[in-house]
Write a structure and sequence with these properties.
The protein contains five helices and 40 strands. By secondary structure, it is mostly beta strands. The strands form six sheets. It has a 22-stranded antiparallel barrel. The protein starts with a helix and ends in an 11-residue tail after the last strand.
Length: about 725
């Protein structure tokens, strides 16, 4: 019995002697010890936790190369590969996990909306329940800072830029005619149904290198990835009727909707300032198909719309007014794929196509416009680590335009051009810590029509000043080709240019958001011509320039009062530019110095009602009085409008809806038109340009049929 006992004792001693002791200290970047960190050898049960001094120590029988793992909440996991016998007296500094809650956000110049955005200022529900927006997402966005209230136009005017300086994208693909066709002083609306979108990014400046050919702003609309259930929806309103249906299968879904609008019955009741010969009517339809792959998602969107109207517009220089008729057909197709390629590579690719046809009759002239646009984009994203991510992309734009004008008293006029451009871009997101991050990018564009190549640098920085606040900076150069109204006469110009400088402060805490942003924007190479409007015989140059500077403020509080939510936005704008046919540098008519919006929403349980109000204020806008010697020498009266809406739930899936714009009937004036020649007293007479009607009413009934019997269209109102 002595021999076996001796062998057993020797084996125990040998095992004890083979143990390795792993020791060290764990701290954060500031040197503060981290208590409770999990420390272990990968693939074993050997490990321990750090004490209050950050010290850890444990033994292991493992030998040779091993991987030591150290992890702790809100810090990146640390790993060390080495000889286990040498893992002694280690000094480990854990890096903050920049993906954890509370990390800095690169948001200068961008107003995000959507439930998944860290810097969200509005939700998808907010976009379409704002009084005065009448279900139009563009109308709701105009309550955000940085926008100017140009009610006679209806499009987005951002930080001293006109509406043509803003581009709109759906799922990253360009939309070429995002607004309904219209004419002077008849406001346009967005073409697309609000219920299609889960959120937006509205960049009022300094936007990503991924986007180009826009001097002022980019609006990114993101469609729903997957509907939550099958449903059918009906809309009955005093100006139209609509219906939609969504079907779901295992990996597929399809949503379709259609809407018909006819304003004739409404305009027969509500007095108009326009002599309508054929009141506005439109028919539109949309479809979205989605397919889920194992590693990606395919979305295909198609929209087709028809618009038809005819009117006689008052004109101080034409006794009987100007007769104008328009028939428009617009087709838009969009297909995108987003997925994973493995090894931390992601791919986003897609293409869009648009065909727009206008048949215009103005006085005795018939004008036929045809435009085709194609956009292709491929973007790759590589995640090297939580701290460094890189985007690489290419895109191609193809544009063809043709116009034919016929007048019985003159020869036919025809013009056409092909405007194609190619672009490459690269952008890196670098997170130095949870508190400090940088985005740096560059975009290169070649345009074949104007034969130019331009390089556009973009960069932004963000620093977290506290757990609830941060400051950001952004800079970027932006180029845009001259507008269609110019290119059809002249294709020898250079692109227009703007440079953006932005500083931003953001505070967010439990349903409260404060956002303040100052900016300066310079304009160069703006297009000028020597006639009232672009013409074949006009002299065109790139001698224009200008600037825009200002301050945007946004405050939202959805927690202080139960069931009550409100936001206030204010914008100060100082801008002047020398462009088009301006004789001197001056503030354009669309730019008001002060803009204010106050939006309130109150849910009353006992009434089963959502009440919403929106108040809009704009200071007087400049206009030119030819009776004075100074250009743009006068200002209109201030703009005021109080809008109201009431959504009443008859049952969970049936809603009665009522809204009215400009409840108090403010007499707003947008501009003045002056006669071409003076009267006998040597003065130029004028007429005021005002809304087609002081108020607009909507009365509707919305009915949803779904599996859970609770979904409704409250988020579509």
């Amino acid at each position: 019995m002595r021999l076996p006992l001796t062998i057993t004792f020797l084996l125990i001693v040998s095992s004890i002697n083979a143990q390795n002791t792993i020791t060290g200290t764990i701290t954060d970047p500031s040197g503060t010890p981290i208590q409770g960190a999990n420390v272990y050898l990968d693939g074993t049960y050997d490990g321990s936790s750090s004490d209050e001094k950050g010290v850890f120590s444990f033994t292991s029988a493992e030998e040779g190369p091993q991987t030591l793992i150290i992890s702790f909440l809100s810090f990146e996991t640390y790993s060390l590969l080495g000889e286990v016998s040498e893992m002694k007296n280690l000094n480990v500094v854990l890096k903050e996990d920049i993906n954890s809650l509370g990390s800095v956000i690169l948001n200068a110049g961008t107003l995000s909306t959507g439930d998944n955005s860290k810097a969200s200022v509005l939700t998808p529900l907010d976009i379409v329940t704002t009084a005065g927006a009448d279900g139009d997402y563009i109308g709701a966005l105009k309550t955000l800072p940085g926008t100017s209230n140009v009610s006679e136009d209806g499009r987005l005017f951002v930080r001293g830029g006109d509406a043509n300086e803003t581009n709109i994208y759906i799922d990253g693909q360009r939309v070429f005619q995002p607004f309904t066709a219209t004419t002077n002083n008849i406001p346009a609306r967005g073409r697309f149904s609000s219920f299609l979108f889960k959120g937006t990014n509205f960049s009022t400046g300094g936007y990503s290198a991924e986007y180009g050919d826009a001097l002022s702003s980019v609006l990114l609309l993101n469609t729903i990835d997957e509907p939550n259930q099958e449903k059918t929806e009906f809309q009955f309103i005093n100006v139209g009727i609509g219906a939609g249906n969504t079907q779901k299968w295992k990996k597929n879904s399809l949503s379709v909707n259609a809407f018909y609008v006819n304003l004739k019955p409404y305009q027969n009741i509500v007095e108009q300032r326009v002599n309508w010969i054929k009141p506005f009517q439109s028919l539109s339809g949309e479809a979205v198909y989605r397919h889920k792959f194992d590693n990606g998602l395919l979305k295909v969107y198609g929209g087709l719309s028809y618009t038809d109207f005819e009117l006689i517009q008052e004109d101080i220089n034409v006794a009987d007014g100007v007769r104008f008729g328009l028939k428009n057909r617009n087709l838009y197709l969009n297909a995108t794929y987003r997925g994973s390629l493995g090894n931390d590579w992601d791919i986003t690719t897609g293409s869009s196509f648009a065909n727009d046809h206008d048949n215009i009759n103005v006085i005795n002239t018939n004008i036929l416009d045809d435009e085709n646009n194609f956009h292709f984009k491929l973007k790759l994203r590589k995640r090297f680590s939580n701290r460094f991510k890189l985007n690489l992309g290419v895109e191609q734009f193809l544009n063809t335009f043709s116009e034919k004008a016929q007048n019985p008293d003159s020869d036919a006029f025809e013009t056409s051009y092909d405007n194609n451009s190619s672009a490459i871009f690269s952008e890196a997101n670098i997170f130095f810590s949870k508190k400090f991050a940088m985005q740096v990018g560059i975009r290169g564009t070649y345009n074949s029509l104007l034969d130019y190549t331009k390089i556009s640098p973009r960069t932004s920085l963000a620093y977290k000043t506290s757990s609830k606040s941060q400051i950001s900076l952004a800079y970027g150069d932006f180029y845009q080709s001259p507008l269609q109204e110019v290119l059809k006469y002249n294709t020898t110009l250079e692109p227009e240019k703007s440079s953006h400088y932005i500083i931003n402060y953001l505070y967010q805490d439990k349903g409260k958001t404060l956002r303040a942003e100052g900016y300066y924007k310079s304009y160069n190479k703006l297009v000028k011509f020597d006639t009232d409007f672009p013409e074949f015989a006009s002299l065109y140059t790139n001698n224009g320039d200008g600037y825009a500077t200002g301050l945007d403020l946004f405050w939202r509080d959805s927690k202080s009062i139960k069931n009550f939510d409100y936001w206030v936005s204010y914008s100060y704008l100082n801008t002047k530019r020398d462009y088009r046919n301006y004789p001197d540098k001056a503030t354009p008519n669309f730019a008001a110095e002060h803009n204010l919006s106050l939006v309130t929403k109150y849910w009353i349980n006992d009434w089963k009602s959502l009440l919403s109000t929106t108040y809009n204020f704009g200071s007087g806008r400049p206009y030119n009085d030819p009776n004075e010697s100074v250009f743009q020498n006068q200002k209109t009266r201030t703009f005021n409008a109080l809008n109201f809406s009431w959504a009443y739930l008859i049952s969970p899936q049936k809603i009665l809806y009522f809204s009215v714009s400009n409840v108090l009937g403010f007499d707003n004036v947008f501009n003045y038109q002056y006669s071409d020649t003076p009267n006998v007293n040597g003065e130029f007479a004028r007429r005021a340009i005002r809304p087609t009607a002081d108020r607009f009413f909507i009365l509707g009934f919305f009915w949803t049929i779904s599996d859970n019997k609770t979904d409704n269209q409250l988020d579509n109102l």
